[in-house]
Every structure is written in C-alpha cells, then in structure tokens.
Amino acid sequence: MYLPDGYTTLTKRAEKDDREVYDLFFGPNHPGMHGNFGYVLEMEGTQIVKVRPNAGMLHRGFEKSMENKRWVQNLSLIPRVCVPDPDPNEVAYCQAVEAIMGVEVPRRARYIRSVVLELSRLGSFLMGMGGVGGALGHYSIMYLMMESRDRILDLFEELTGGRVYHIYNIPGGVRRDIPPGWKQKVLDLVDHLEKRIPEYDRLLYENPVVHTRLQGLAPLSAEEALTSGIVGPNLRASGVKADVRVDAPYAAYDEVEVNIECSGGGDALARAVQVRMDYLEAIRIIRRLLAKIPDGSFKLDLGNLMKLKVPAGDAYSKVESSKGEFGYYVVSNGGMKPYRVAVRGPSLPAGLYLCHKHLPGMKIDDVAVWMATLAICPPDIDR
Fold first, then answer.
1. Closest CA to 61 of 78, 76, 47, 73
2. How far apart are the C-alpha atoms of 210 and 213, rounded to whole Å?
3. Which of 165, 170, 278, 308 has its CB 3.0 to 4.6 Å from that of 79, i.e. a possible disulfide?
4. 260: nearest Cα among 242, 248, 275, 280
5. Phi, psi of 44 (to 5 degrees)
6. What pLDDT score does 202 carry?
7. Collapsing DSSP states into helix, strand and coil, what is residue 343?
8. Distance from C-alpha of 219 to C-alpha of 302, rounded to nearest angstrom
C-alpha cells in the first residue's frame, strides 16, 4: 500500500498524543473583530496558548496628523478615533481648545452638546449589545438593535447632515441650532427605545445560552481594573463607582441628575448587564436635559474658524464616552494649528495588554466575545 510522506511522523505523534501548536490569525478582516485590528493566536487545538496583538492595520496616525491641520479642520478627523461613538472626541477636543482660549460656551450649547453625547452613547450601546448577540450567534437581537440604531442616525442626519460622522461640535459651541420639531422627535425616539427593552431582555439578557457563555468569562477584579486603566462601563462592572459626568462634570451634566449604578460581577456577563443599566440611564438623562434646555445662543462668535489662532498654552479635557474616559491633551504654541495633541482612549488597556493575561486558556470562539463585552474600539488603539 502507498503511504504518503509524513505518514510515519504523524503516526508517532498520535502514539505520543503530542499536540501541535499553530498560529491562527484573528482579524483584521474577521466578522468577530471590531475594526481593522488583529490578534495572532498561538493555538493548541481550539484553545489559545498565547496572543500577539497585531496593530497597525489602520495606518492613520491621528495624533501626528492633527499637528498639520488647522484647529477646525481636525474636527473632520477626530470622530474616526472611535467610529461607533464619534461625538465624545469632538467635545473633548473642543473643550480643551476652549480651556486654552479661556472662553465659556453658551448654556444652550452645553445642553445641546449633552443631548448629542447621550444619543451617541445610545447608538454605540446598541451596536455593542448587538455585537455581543452576534458574537454568540444570536443574530436576531443584533438586527433588531441595529434597526433601533438607525433611528438614532436618522436624527443625527437631520441635525448635522451626517449619519456616522457629525462634525457638529466646534470651538465655542455647536455648528447650528436644533431644527424645529427635533426635540419632540428625540423624546418620541427614547420612548420607543425604552419600549424595546423587554424584547431585548427576552432575546439577550434572559437567554440561558448567553448566561452560560458569559458567566465567569474574563473576570476583572476592581483592583486589576483600576491598576490597568480600565474605565467606563467596564470599570463599573467590576464594582468601581466612577463616571466622568459625575466626578468631573462638563457640558450640562452639572445641571441634571446622573445616577451611577454598578453591576459589580466583573465578568463578561456583568459587563453586558452594565451596558443595559447605562443604556436606561442615558434615556433618562436625555429626558432631563430636554426638559431644561434653555433659550439663547448656540455658539460664540469666534470669527472665521479657519483663521482661528489659539493662545499658547495647554489643557487636558475628558468626557465619559460609551466606553469610558476619552481625554484630549492639547498644546498650542499660539499658531493656527495645534503644536501637539495626545489622545487618552479607553480601549487600549484591554485590547492591547490585558489580552496577554486573559485570552490564553480561552477557546477560539471566546475571542469575539472578549472584544464585544469589553467594547474594544481598534482605531482608539492605532491612532
């Protein structure tokens, strides 16, 4: 009988029960990978032995690019630092510029910014919760949540002219006032989103398959979360009561009630539940903001923003995005362009270095769940 080359070697390996370690490329173009990013996984069968993050797929260099653009031109670039939740980048950057200039944004503009931020948070949460469902094979919940997200994008299109990137916040306020009837449309939308929650619960949060897959997966203690720089819903899911909107209020958050709740379990299930809790609170905050939104100007008159000169100085501004603290450190040398911009994003700790500790020992089908429940946004890493 003819025996192919390697037969003897394979037979000896089988007799010894030796297990071959091989590399598996997870991303950049993989349905379970959030964005252009990759993990090179050393696998033993279906179990992960080692992980090597493979960044650099985006080739963007946002921070360096900002030094070569005028102050207002950067507003078309920075929303791409986190595509599902772009508006926190705009607000954090604008607030840093305003702090260096020593100007105060009109009260109406601060309220409008807050409403926009909460709508962006809701849209990001819907994509994130739907992504958890998709990572577990429950596509019905993903499709339903994306349909709801499209309704939010419709309102952004009416307000800003753009669906995904809005370029709406500018130094000194917002680009234009809210159109007639838009406030009521927002209230109608959040009513609709709240009514959908029981359906989301039946399909996702009360699903025994979801509980079996998520419970106990990738637990982060409060101490590990804090020392690693984990922020936002992931930090609250580990039991730490922290939120930039409360701890260092900005925009109009000092004028409305913001409740911080913690799921506290620390694992993937706790992180998913935390997003549900934050989602409901965002709906409540929008109602509070719209009930108190004042009349008045929606921006300062800073002249032609293409010719804006910012005095020499520096400032750090932070906001609470759907993924946690987004911070911008901006340095001006008194010219028409930033001298330096550095971004503090929330995705780097889990996406780039905690993976070395937690992914080994998991199965290949847990990688997409890791990405989804930690809400890792690769452009935030490769910026």
1. 78
2. 5
3. 165
4. 242
5. -125, 100
6. 94
7. strand
8. 49
Task: Tell me how far apart the alpha carbons of residues 122 and 194 are, in angstroms, rounded to a whole number.
Answer: 11
**Alpha carbons 279 and 212: distance in angstroms, whole number:** 23
Q: What is the pLDDT of residue 54?
A: 82
* DSSP H or E run through 145: helix 139-160
- ω into 79 cis (within 30 of 0): no
pTM of the entire structure?
0.92
Contact predicate 46/363, CB 8 Å: yes
DSSP class of residue 299 equals B
- Give residue limits of the domains in the chain: 102-302
304 class by beta-carbon count within 10 Å (0-12 exposed, 13-18 middle, 19+ buried)? exposed
pLDDT digits (tens, 9 = 90+) for 24-61: 888 777 666 776 788 888 988 889 999 998 877 776 78
Over residues 175-206, the pLDDT tens digits come to: 999 999 999 999 999 999 999 999 999 999 99
Which residue ranges in the chain fall short of pLDDT 50? 1-3
H or E segment and range at residue 284: helix 268-292
Query: Residue 130 is inside which H or E element, if any?
Result: helix 107-135
Structure tokens at 274: 């935390």
Helices 268-292, 182-200: crossing angle, 10 deg rounding: 150
Q: Specify whether the CB–CB gap between 211 and 203 falls below 8 A.
A: no
CATH 3.30.450.20 fits 102-302, yes or no: no
Distance of alpha carbon 135 from alpha carbon 239, whole angstroms: 25
